[in-house]
Structures
1.
Amino acid sequence: MQCVNVELKERRYPIYIGEHLLTDSSVYPLKSGDKVMIVTNETIAPLYLETVANTLKRIGCQVDHVLLKDGEKYKTLDSLNQIFTALLQQNHGRDTTLIALGGGVIGDVAGYAAASYQRGIKFIQIPTTLLSQVDSSVGGKTAVNHELGKNMIGAFYQPITVIIDTTTLNTLPKREVNAGLAEVIKYGAILDYPFFEWLERHIDNLVALNQQDLQYCIARCCQIKADVVAHDETEKGERALLNLGHTFGHAIETHLGYGNWLHGEAVAAGSMMAAALSEKLGDLTHTDVARLEKLFARANLPTFSPDGMQPEDYLPHMMRDKKVLAGKLRLVLLKTLGQAYVTTDSDPTLVLEAIRACTQAD
Amino acid sequence: MQCVNVELKERRYPIYIGEHLLTDSSVYPLKSGDKVMIVTNETIAPLYLETVANTLKRIGCQVDHVLLKDGEKYKTLDSLNQIFTALLQQNHGRDTTLIALGGGVIGDVAGYAAASYQRGIKFIQIPTTLLSQVDSSVGGKTAVNHELGKNMIGAFYQPITVIIDTTTLNTLPKREVNAGLAEVIKYGAILDYPFFEWLERHIDNLVALNQQDLQYCIARCCQIKADVVAHDETEKGERALLNLGHTFGHAIETHLGYGNWLHGEAVAAGSMMAAALSEKLGDLTHTDVARLEKLFARANLPTFSPDGMQPEDYLPHMMRDKKVLAGKLRLVLLKTLGQAYVTTDSDPTLVLEAIRACTQAD
């Protein structure tokens, strides 16, 4: 088992990473008599709900659960309200603990519910997808979507513990494992060139779910993100680097409708657009761009704009992104592989050319 | 003009209290070019929306507004979503400022919207009711109701400035002025005996809206609450004292349905129940209880349980209160006038007797 400690101004919490942690009662910060509400979805429940509930009952907790529908389109205020209703119907007070068991959607909705229920209750995350293990389990970003924009409603709210059982990845669809690898590759590209090289050597093992490499990889990603977040809890500066490819990616997700491309897939294509722009600005070499593209491709990820989406379709969506400040597009670009920066004065013509460079002719 | 500074761990903000502040551009912490969204309701808008908007336009701000329906029953996730929709439709980014113009409901909903929109934007409060001026403008509690419980969903979120224009009380229904005085009297009863005595001398002036006494009174209440909140931002200890009468009061509001009794009216009757219990415990004298009752009565406030509500109707509602910890009822009681304390081991039989003492025979 590996442990990464996230150190924040007001609090610290551990991320445990290992095999078969769902049944390891020693990693749960709970005691006999504690009330717990598990939030999960209809896909995860048959796989892991009973396992987790039994571990908690062994500790002596009183365990309730609420099942959300599976999918990004249920990341809504309505699902949030479903959690509040369950908490109130089962008389959960301010001293209860909410457990998110599932992927990023469950983590985001349950985390925001924990932040909001009676103005804040304790929260434990058990992410079961690679994406949520390397991304949303660190940083305290919680949110639901609004019909006019993704992640527009939420809070910064930290869990008390994150429990990552890497064996849960064995039941995850391959396409989602790959989408998670998009964020993994992103960490190497923006902040850690040695890790980028490690990925070039181990990406096939990760795709094949080698447990040892997975644990190293997840711990490394959590550590990178934890370091960034510790410096910048509410995303004023350095944390923005983590959004490489995300502004382009959100445009893709919004244009196609949530859930047609996976988030990681949109981030992969979006990162290639950021890389193309970085090359046009004379920072990345053509070889760098090709190395990044190859890594994404080996993880079976898209490196081009979706079929039928025109370069002109991007900017209106991008201008509505949360990262827009005072009407200025804020993009994360690469100086070199392993070193990203944020800019607010990109030339819209160049941005369009970079998108075009990642658009395949019909 | 009076100014009370609220000093919190991470930040401080001023509360300005005076006549005609709505049109005083110097109290708004905004500059030319800032985007602003005013949240108000259909009752307040015809009275003050244009006044505030014009002041902001004089500063050079870009001003939008959103109108909610008036009333506690609109303190919902739906109203919250209406604010998000307006913000997104008008392309408000993370750097926008939300202004709550109205009473406690507007402040609570808009404050929670500000806490949640893009995970937090700047927030200014302009409370236009006495209750919101002395209570919800300090402390950062924001919330909406759930059909199973009041204020169950929310956040702790601080404004950057509070602007209290006491002349707005001239358009407030008398019944609401009186309801605000319930919270004013509460401050004296729990923490400030000299202020309690001041109220015994000036309550008639306050009922008559004497501007000078109102300003002193509001500033004093804000200062008392600011001191309490500074010690206890997230309501773990001392802050609970502010809830004198509230657990009984919430039971009344829930039983009657939101909005039949005003919050302050329920707090007045609830405070008398707490006082009756304190007398039964041998802390308050009969004279103390009578002085408290007289002060409420001079402000035309109810000091008895609503007609038709039975003493037995209270406990089920009270046990669902946010202040319940580990299944234990947590009540604020009085040692003497001006000194409150919190207890979690009240005898249910005595609680019922206290409620009965405040119930009029049919």
2.
Amino acid sequence: MAHWKKALVIANGPLPSRRRIAGWLDEETLIVCADGGANRARARALIPHLVIGDLDSITPGTAAALAGVETIRVEDQENTDLEKVLDYLLAHGITAAVVLGATGRRPDHTLANFSILAKYHSRLDLLFVDSWCRMEIIDRPVQLDLAPGTTLSMLPLGRCEGVTTGGLAYPLVHQVLEPGVRESISNRVSKSPVEISLTVGKLLLFIVDKK
Amino acid sequence: MAHWKKALVIANGPLPSRRRIAGWLDEETLIVCADGGANRARARALIPHLVIGDLDSITPGTAAALAGVETIRVEDQENTDLEKVLDYLLAHGITAAVVLGATGRRPDHTLANFSILAKYHSRLDLLFVDSWCRMEIIDRPVQLDLAPGTTLSMLPLGRCEGVTTGGLAYPLVHQVLEPGVRESISNRVSKSPVEISLTVGKLLLFIVDKK
């Protein structure tokens, strides 16, 4: 696996357009489907290098179409197919991944996948992408190169303290953000680079590409 | 407004099927659209009693089709169209509402709407419904009448302590649930009534109707 530097992971939710997916593909990218994600990949005419999961969600049509693709069956009721894929990446020295299809289907799964993002982000350079947004966890000071006018939301996963921003139209200065109490929705980049820092907690950052 | 006992609120996300919506309609139900929710209602051939919002998302076609419907323009950048509707309900003594279309579009909006659910649930008997799930906030002991076999998830909005359940296949006993740390996904009703209690925090409960 040594030549793969990063991975594109296809989970079992709706995928972005082929054009948007193409932006995340290059020759150094391992394409891995999490179980039923294989059906989604097939619908986008995308052939993965690998399928991982308990393999209970792959349709017969997908199984036939991907008969030549390596599949790894992992039985473990304690973690999800997406976690099985991320564990595999970590075990094989791949430390950056873009995950498609992690949002937009069952809303409890979307929220659970955000929890997975929070659980793995310290070990993997991890980004979720869907038709609307790019999503990542922020828990230390970051500088982001974003075009002025870009819409951006910050949702706290649990209580976040000391949230301070630079380069945003509605700046935050030592704010507390907390689920069900206060969050920052549809803020706007006024000046690049955007700076975000916080002292306690994990922020889920959404960079909005389509409104 | 005195004869309305409850409300069906149409937000601007994808709506469930007409058949599923019909289950939430009766003659005591005020139908209110939050701004662009009017376009969604029209696509389901549903005529609201009222449209509320800053009215910047209604298409000309919808405006024409709903020309006879009372509309209330509320300008306030500090809260969303959904909050404007819920404030209106509270101001008019309506204390129960089902909200459709609050999930499944921009994922930051979905999360922000869950925050709104948490902000309003103590004043409104509030339920979100989409094609997959019914969603509500639990922050005190509840008993729920649910058919054995029903799938159910509990996602903490912030840290939840002392979470204890009865009637579930995977019981929780004085558990801590926390975003990005531990949650309860796809648990199953083993025996009705289901009992859920917690000592600290707010749980977002998902009753899954379609997998």
